[in-house]
Specification:
576 residues, alpha/beta, five-stranded antiparallel sheet, 22 helices, 23 strands
Length: 576
């Protein structure tokens, strides 16, 4: 029996592996991790006596450098290339495929045979990826096909990335190659022991890590809640990565399972290592605001005049210092636009602070004020402005009058507030301060020409996330979709396409599939109608989850897929 670990760089590949028949002589475990995240898993696999590791692309190459057991590369087949070309056939914009020769050689031949209008570019090493992408962007290309590394770098500079995924055929070929190498390399192992003296004398919790995500040393005071299988939790690693890249100290709040921690991370030994000190811990209370760093700009999708106008004017909105109020119905992508504006102005260098103002308590207002003064530069994104109570409106006005001038303020509202201001339900001074520059987002019913583009985008995402095999939608089915008014806008469209991709066994969604789902929506049998509007967000989430569970006969796997969350998250939300 060959004990093998399959490390999938994206969740869709993991799902494909699970759906593929495993040969009788294999004992397969599956993990999802990409690039550096996969290294820790690979090293543990070697210590746990795995015979073979199977992975793909740059992740497989990285793993191969640090373990002595055989690493099998999952190749990209012609069918895989044909699948991704099918996803983009509705696009009318410049498309390029960027990859190493093992991908581009077959892609170039396929493009010639099928007469696809795709620019195929070959890179010789990973250092060529970013300059190549920047050159393509300057030439007017907007969509890039490639592997995980290429897609991540493309999204960082504002290009839309579509992942070239591997199908069942490629997985079965990898098993054959694994069997061959297993016979050649059976029994090969290597142990890595790189530890420093334990710093038990320190009076505070401390851990020392290197730039390869290895824990070199820690004292007994270090809280195990910040570790998962002796590996620091991902939120800590995000801070460590920024510190090592910039060579500067950073303070951060990190959430464990039951407590929050105030940590200080500092570079050690020419940015090759980092020290982490835990200064304090606190009871974890669900905050009404959160601080994020945007690693990439969220794409503004569509070929309509409205979508093109948003993209062309994005830089103007980003450069202005006056507050921006984004007005549009729920589900029209206001948050995506706000994050795109933030990324256009600040990139990855400064955080974006999300605020649900009507849920902030007195103490959190003070914390938020201190946070904004600490970060100095970034974006304050305030959601659901129309729901603010009068008391909260006064507090928000005070906050806006105090925050640093380099904080960009963006507010989101589901409808124009003029009538509320006239009726005295919304402070005129606050409204005038927030609405210096209004940005109106039209609903989906007024931009139905974008539906086809969004369907292709959603299907490619669902395939990368969950391995769904649906490649596209027949024209008559798409035409039928365009007859619907979509009261829930793009959010509702995404949920419908997700349901169709999970329930359709065919490669293409047919008209009868769409009619079944839309007749369900048009009869009013939707979750939203059963949700009381006077409950908290957490309470509403539970109502929605229980309703979906009932509709799926309490099948948690189906309910989680329909809601777009993992089974673990589903269980946690129900039991919180």
């Amino acid at each position: 029996m060959i004990k093998a670990l399959f490390i999938a760089p994206y969740t869709g590949l993991a799902e494909t592996v699970k759906k593929t028949n495993v040969p009788n002589d294999f004992d397969i475990d599956v993990e999802v991790a990409n690039l550096e995240d996969a290294i820790d898993i690979a090293e543990r696999a070697e210590k746990d006596k795995y015979d073979i590791i199977i992975s793909r692309g740059g992740t497989a190459s990285l793993i191969q450098e640090i373990v002595s057991i055989p690493v099998i590369h999952v190749d990209i087949s012609g069918y895989d290339l044909l699948r991704v070309f099918t996803f983009i056939r509705e696009m009318n914009e410049g498309v390029a495929l960027v990859g190493f020769e093992n991908i581009t050689r077959g892609a170039g031949i396929l493009c010639n045979i099928m007469e696809y209008d795709v620019q195929v570019v070959t890179v010789k090493n990973s250092n060529d990826v970013v300059p190549t992408l920047e050159k393509l962007k300057n030439q007017g290309f907007t969509v890039v096909l490639g592997d995980t590394i290429t897609i991540q770098e493309a999204e960082k500079i504002g290009l839309r990335g579509i992942l070239i995924t591997s199908g069942k055929e490629a997985v079965m070929d990898a098993y054959d190659e694994a069997r061959r190498l297993y016979r050649l390399f059976k029994g090969v192992t290597r142990q890595i022991n790189e530890y420093h003296h334990i710093l038990q004398s320190l009076p505070f919790p401390f851990v020392l890590v290197n730039n390869e995500k290895e824990i070199l040393d820690k004292n007994s005071l270090f809280d195990n809640e910040l570790l998962q299988h002796n590996v620091l939790i991902p939120d800590v690693w995000k801070v460590v990565k920024r510190v090592l890249e910039r060579g500067q100290n950073e303070w951060a709040e990190i959430e464990g399972e039951s407590k929050g921690y105030v940590v200080q991370v500092f570079p050690v030994k020419e940015k090759l290592m980092a020290g982490i000190i835990v200064h304090s811990s606190f009871k974890l209370v669900k905050k009404s605001y959160q601080i994020n760093h945007c690693s990439a700009r969220l794409p503004i999708i569509g070929d309509s005049r409205q979508a093109e106008s948003l993209r062309s004017n994005l830089n103007k909105y980003a450069l202005t210092d006056v507050p921006i109020m984004i007005v549009g119905e729920a589900g029209t992508g206001k948050s995506t636009i706000a994050q795109a504006i933030h990324f256009e102005r600040f990139g990855q260098d400064h955080p974006i602070v999300f605020v649900w103002g009507n849920r902030l308590n007195d103490l959190e207002w003070e914390e938020l004020n201190r946070t904004l003064f600490k970060i100095q530069k970034g974006t304050l994104l305030i959601k659901n402005i129309e729901e603010l109570s009068k008391q909260t409106q006064y507090k928000l006005l005070d906050l806006l009058n105090q925050i640093p001038g380099k904080i960009k303020v963006i507010s989101l509202v589901n409808y124009a507030l003029d009538s509320k201001v006239q009726q005295g339900q919304f402070l005129k001074e606050l409204y005038e301060k927030l609405s210096n520059l209004p940005l109106y987002v039209v609903p989906l019913r007024e931009r139905k020409g974008d539906i086809a583009t969004f369907i292709g985008y959603f299907l490619s995402d669902f395939h990368a996330e969950s391995g769904n095999e649906t490649l596209g939608m027949k024209k008559e089915a798409m035409d039928y979709l365009k007859q619907f008014d979509w009261p829930g806008n793009f959010t509702q469209l995404k949920n419908v396409i997700n349901e169709l991709s999970m329930t359709t066994s065919d490669l293409y969604i047919e008209l009868n599939h769409v009619i079944d789902v839309l007749s369900h929506l048009e009869t009013g049998d939707t979750v939203e109608e059963n949700v009381p509007s006077n409950q908290t967000l957490e309470e509403i989430e539970k109502v929605v989850i229980r309703k979906v569970l009932e509709e799926e006969n309490h099948n948690q796997t189906k309910a989680a897929k329909r809601l777009g969350i993992s089974r673990t998250t589903l269980w946690r939300k129900l039991n919180s």
